[in-house]
Amino acid sequence: MPIISSYGRAIRIYARKGREWALKYVDGTAADKNGKPSRFRVANRWLKLLDAPFLVSSDCCDVMKKSPVHKYQRETGRMPFTGTLACESQLRKQAWMRTGCNGFAAKNPTSQPMAFWTENDVLAYLVDNDIEICPVYGRIVKADKTEADECPKTPKYKLTGVTRTGCMYCGFGCHLEKEPNRFQRMKETHPKLYEYCMRPVSRGGLGLDAVLSFADIKH
Length: 219
Hints:
Distance between the termini: 16 Å
Helix content: 25-40%
Strand order of the largest sheet: 1-6
Number of helices: 8
Mean pLDDT: 82
Number of strands: 6
């Protein structure tokens, strides 16, 4: 079950090696094979996932997205351009600071020409060029305040619909969302799909009701 965040991958590893080993990632004493302190830390609140009655993992991303792309790269020799932004996560920001937009010397060379854009840059570009967006994002409207950092004269925009899209049943980051979160919205907009994903696995569903309840995520 992909819930919480990239912690999901770590929790899967912790569950194999045991609680005592896992606790090192909470107090910061964990180290890699070379003795270097691990950069991964796990919040106390998620330790209970070690005892969850379901498996926690982020492997679905590898199977459905990363592996097919890497396979295509090996077979064609072509390398990807991606639209990821450095502001989207700390890991992406760190990667951009190391390599810039073009990580040609990396193990998996990638060009990220939009890495230095902000999310507001993207929305402003769409508005300035009158580009249509998917209805699920709603409309692009001006926010109440203007951007006060590097571009004080640039209007600040926001979306009236969802700000992120991906696999519909994924729970990554759901615990950080304001209500109504993605599952609460799904209940209203796609009731049949909501019923399917919440239904127990024994009855042909995905069993997310039990998973989200265990993680104290409202749905």
